[in-house]
């Protein structure tokens, strides 16, 4: 198939993360010639599967130091998993509070999820000006507050926990919450199911809480999946389907947009060279892009490049001698640990138990992640081990921790942040910023989760890449607009096809 404007185009994709690889894959499907250049020495971007060594020198268990889960409702991601032949690797991902034996901190100390409801309700009700709500309403508010506290950075939580206001609770108080009680003892509320059945309740959430609630519901959903052999199977399988050359260790240091071409300055080792491209798809985070020398960009584009905010994230995994948490009754999911640690996940021990098991000891975002990233690896690991051993004293046993690995995405050279998070913004502003982030500069197009309606998720990276590929397909160099808006993008077509299936 040739391009819509009369022939195949030659396109350079900057970045070999999911957005870059999907863009290359889709452009080749449309009949274009594509090459991919990547600054780091590996592909995958913010998908980072770390494999610990086994005891006999073989490959042992792995930890996801980057993207680790996929909401099953993310139709584009699930479509690519099927298209790439990875559906047999799809497994359930168990998340926060999904195991009744997991822990969370309260004023009374660490409590099991199954035992925490009375304390959570008491602490939540104490902060309400009017406590005349039905017990189920207070249980709803207590678990919503606990979920926000577990997911949000401490500073963000301090600003929103009072926004579970009387108007919201008064509305919920008129709804029968009995069908949404869950857990072995029926002492929790299935927030995801409740909001799915009662979308009108969302309109009563304050703007600062409304967008954040999307992530709360995604992260606490019972329909999240993972890839059994590691999330890096997705970028590697994509790369194997791309015919064009994928070159690593080539860092773009300058982009000059002109009427007839896009000129790149590329550093490879100690050598820097120029590269002239007909078309370019830039998929790197704007935190990285704004460190480059940019010319030929209009002022509005430069403004969005420099003001788009990324939240950091820091993950630290422990390679343990055994899955000691199973003896403590925890079969999976995650605890909310609090402190610097924030969240602790118990990945399934799918491999040979002789090689040990992985504990995702700490997952933090925002200012909490920044605090940890400012420490050295040794200091960070020591802080996490010390805090986490208060909840899991088994970590103090000699020889229990076999190894550690981590990634501070906020200070990582090729990301300078984990994701674009637009919490606290109203919907119209979020959409305006997304459109401006996506808007091309003549032959330079943009993709990445920061250009999507699903920032911070693989789904967003894929959505933006598909749309960028089709913008290039319909691009006419002398046109004042990029493509006919009456046409559906492939991402929209795929979404509609999945819904009708």
TrEMBL record:
Positions with a binding annotation for substrate: 69
GO molecular function: L-amino-acid oxidase activity
Cofactor: FAD
Residue ranges occupied by any Amine oxidase domain in the UniProt entry: 18-472
Entry binding sites for FAD: 38-39, 66-69, 252, 449
One GO term (biological process): amino acid catabolic process
SUPFAM superfamilies named in the record: FAD-linked reductases, C-terminal domain (SSF54373), FAD/NAD(P)-binding domain (SSF51905)
Domain of life: Bacteria
Protein name: FAD-dependent oxidoreductase
Organism: Kribbella antibiotica
């Amino acid at each position: 198939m040739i391009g819509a404007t009369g022939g195949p185009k030659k396109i350079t994709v900057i970045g070999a993360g999911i957005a870059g690889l999907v863009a290359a894959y889709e452009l080749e499907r449309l009949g274009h010639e594509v090459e991919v250049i990547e600054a780091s020495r590996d592909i995958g971007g913010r998908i980072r599967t770390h494999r610990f060594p086994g005891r006999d020198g073989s490959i042992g268990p792995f930890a996801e130091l980057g993207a680790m889960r996929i909401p099953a409702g993310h139709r584009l991601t699930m479509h690519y998993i099927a298209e790439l032949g990875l559906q047999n690797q799809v497994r359930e991902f168990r998340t926060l509070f999904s195991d009744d034996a997991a822990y969370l901190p309260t004023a009374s100390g660490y409590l099991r999820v199954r035992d925490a409801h009375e304390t959570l309700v008491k602490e939540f009700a104490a902060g309400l000006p009017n406590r005349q709500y039905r017990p189920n309403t207070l249980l709803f508010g207590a678990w919503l507050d606990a979920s926000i506290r577990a997911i949000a950075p401490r500073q963000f939580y301090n600003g929103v926990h009072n926004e579970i206001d009387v108007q919201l609770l008064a509305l919920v108080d008129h709804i029968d919450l009995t069908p949404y009680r869950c857990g072995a003892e029926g002492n929790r509320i299935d927030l995801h199911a409740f909001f799915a059945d009662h979308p009108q309740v969302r309109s009563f959430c304050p703007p600062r809480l409304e967008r954040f609630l999307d992530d709360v519901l995604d992260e606490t959903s019972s329909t999240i999946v993972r890839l059994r052999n590691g999330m890096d199977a997705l970028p590697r399988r994509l790369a194997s389907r791309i015919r064009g050359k994928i070159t690593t260790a080539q860092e773009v240091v300058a982009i000059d947009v002109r009427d007839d071409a896009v000129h790149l300055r590329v550093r490879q080792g100690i050598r820097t060279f120029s590269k002239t491209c007909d078309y370019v798809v830039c998929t790197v985070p704007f935190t990285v892009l704004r460190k480059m020398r940019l010319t030929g960009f209009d002022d509005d584009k430069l403004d969005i490049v420099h003001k788009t905010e990324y939240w950091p994230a820091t993950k630290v995994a422990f390679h343990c001698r055994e899955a000691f948490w199973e003896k403590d009754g925890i079969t999976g999911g995650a605890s909310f640990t609090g402190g610097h640690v924030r969240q602790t996940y118990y990945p399934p021990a799918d491999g040979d138990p002789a090689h040990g098991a992985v504990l995702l000891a700490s997952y933090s975002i925002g200012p909490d992640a920044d605090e940890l990233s400012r420490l050295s690896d040794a200091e960070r690991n020591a802080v996490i081990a010390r805090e986490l051993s208060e909840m899991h004293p088994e970590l103090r046993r000699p020889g229990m921790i076999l190894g550690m690995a981590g990634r501070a995405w906020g200070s990582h050279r090729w990301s300078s942040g984990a994701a674009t998070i637009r919490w606290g913004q109203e919907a119209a502003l979020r959409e305006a910023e997304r459109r401006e982030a996506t808007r091309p500069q003549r032959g330079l197009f943009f993709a990445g989760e920061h250009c999507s309606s699903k920032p911070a998720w693989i789904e967003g990276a894929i959505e933006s890449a598909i749309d960028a590929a089709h913008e290039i397909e319909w691009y006419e160099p002398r046109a004042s607009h990029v493509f006919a808006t009456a046409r559906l993008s492939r991402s929209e077509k795929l979404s509609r096809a999945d819904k009708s299936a």
